[in-house]
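Appendix B: a complete holo record

For completeness, this appendix reproduces one full record from the ligand-bound portion of the collection. The bound molecule is flavin-adenine dinucleotide. The inputs are the chain sequence and the ligand SMILES; the output is the full three-dimensional arrangement of the complex, encoded as structure tokens. No fields have been trimmed.
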Amino acid sequence: MSQAGVVTEAVAAAAPVAPGPAPAPAPEPVRAHPAVVLGLVAAGAAATIALWWRDTPAVHGLGDWLTNAGRITGLLAGYGVVVLVALMARLPPLERGIGADRLARWHSRGGRYTVGLVVAHALLVVWGYAVTAHTSVVAETTTLWTSYPDVLAATVAGLLLVGVGITSARAARRRLRYETWYYLHFYTYLAVALAFSHQFATGAEFMADRAARVAWGALYAAVAAAIVWYRFVTPVRGALRHRLRVVAVQPEGPGIVSVVVGGRHLDELRAESGQFFRWRFLGQGLWWASSPYSLSAGPRPDRLRITVKDLGDHSRALAGVRPGTRVVAEGPYGAVTAAVRRRRKVLLIGAGIGVTPLRALFETLPAGPGDLTFVYRASRDADVIFRGELAALARDREADLRFLTGRRADLGYDPLSPEALAHNVPDIAHHDVYLCGPPGLTEAVTGSLRAAGVPRRQIHHESFEL
Ligand SMILES: Cc1cc2nc3c(=O)[nH]c(=O)nc-3n(C[C@H](O)[C@H](O)[C@H](O)COP(=O)(O)OP(=O)(O)OC[C@H]3O[C@@H](n4cnc5c(N)ncnc54)[C@H](O)[C@@H]3O)c2cc1C
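The structure of the chain with flavin-adenine dinucleotide bound, as generated:
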């Protein structure tokens, strides 16, 4: 079925697959539905505005209008910040149902709105108070700082949030090391702590309403407990329970190595093909960073495997990691698993290092003969990894495997265009498609798939950028 001019290669050789059989079935993990989560967040925002509504019988005059606009934006900012932190609390139902990449996008967009609300709150309240008191904005600001409880701390909190927002803007983030940006982000926790007490001390909605204070305090306490539990306690408990160590480091291709990690009771992690962990290797020069890498083979009760391309300091150093090195793995995370599948037939499209989660899915996705197709796109033959393993899996699973290699300029056309895809996979619209590769390629291929008639809900995409 190869298209004229495309360098495709049918499967022939059968090398033994290193990782072993699929894991024994475990109870189905809980997965939050994105629409339900968004609905709950919206309902929470409506309830927050209802707090203001209940406490505000009437609004009179410009000063009062401005102050009340400031109260609403302040309440929504206080609610927004707690939702933003909750999205990043690594709650398993959110991680499995929504996916870390989508959660990060929601967090980033929500962060922009929340910082906007914080700034609007400060400006509107100062302006409203100044109009009501017939004084200047500067004089009113001084009064607020010196005579209102906790307002100075809240101002520092607001400035910290604005600072975190600025360092997260695309232009600034590109200039910062990932770890620098990551640790600067921790100032959000300090900002939340600093701003918390001023809400009860000066927030009209809370000062006289005990039930509102209890509900608001419970919301903050629940999110703080989730952060402590899932981001700090769970990784330590996991490290003690599973005792992960590097078993082997195997070269796979130019600048690419597989790291096999062994441990105890790994079935309890309920990891699935398509998921990733955040890995911390406690070896020299590596322990300070924790990086996300996908499983590149179906998880086994005694070992996990990742495959890493040297794209920076951490990934480059992994080639030199020694067997026996202790490992802490946080996870599993990621929603692009067998659970999102809707159709019997599945097409996996991978390129670059994005083939890693697809390699694991190719091994373990339940499928009958002829139901699975793997399309592997690479500019050069030498860039292809897992060639022998994929061939063996394709043979064992009676699946179709195609290597589409060659540069578009040399081929004279795009082998992932709608026409080429439909030609290679004739009933493509009846497939679930799992897609992973460089951002530009994934965007282009999503467009091709849509043009070839694949509904959006059948396209499952994992981004390697958080
Ligand atoms: C969900 C997911 C799965 C991934 N799976 C694989 C895989 O299977 N194999 C593979 O080779 N690569 C994978 N990556 C990419 C890999 O995480 C980065 O290439 C790696 O972290 C680079 O780190 P570095 O220190 O070597 O490079 P740096 O130069 O420090 O970072 C290069 C870029 O990688 C990203 N990055 C670095 N550290 C992190 C981090 N802790 N969290 C999120 N992004 C980070 C940033 O965008 C950064 O700009 C995955 C990424 C994600 C988000």
